[in-house]
Amino acid sequence: MKNNFILTILLLFLSQVLIGQTIIYYPPKGIVETKYSPTDNIYNYQDTLGIISIQIKLISNRNFYNFKETFNQEKFFFDNQLIPMLKNFDFTISNKTGILLKGYIEVLHNEQIIEIVRTTFFTGDSNNIVIFTAAYPKEIDEIFYSPLLESLRSLELKN
Cα-atom radius of gyration of the chain, to the nearest Å? Predict the structure, then answer.
């Protein structure tokens, strides 16, 4: 009886590990993974200077397609105090389709206003939602945005 109980617990644990989803992502050149939180399914990336920050969050057991139907872009920009730059509700890159939003926020730092761009890509499948968010100074947007979008090609959800 005790052995069956231990075996059952072990099988449940292994099934969670084996069935669990992970993210595969290759960031733009100069950006490295800094921290992964397995309990929260959050992947963090940053450049060596700490100017560029990328975070990927995996939300399991949530249907992306249902999320997309009820998603309110205006509320997203308002809640995050972002000034809209781009809204694409049917963004497709490689085999991924999702919601691509880009905006900026003005932050006061050392008596100077700094504009921070925030690019967010929501994607997923019938069982998962992936939220990709990048933040960086607006002054590098022109040179960083294309490599950032290109890196989304590598974003994958794996069993």
Answer: 18
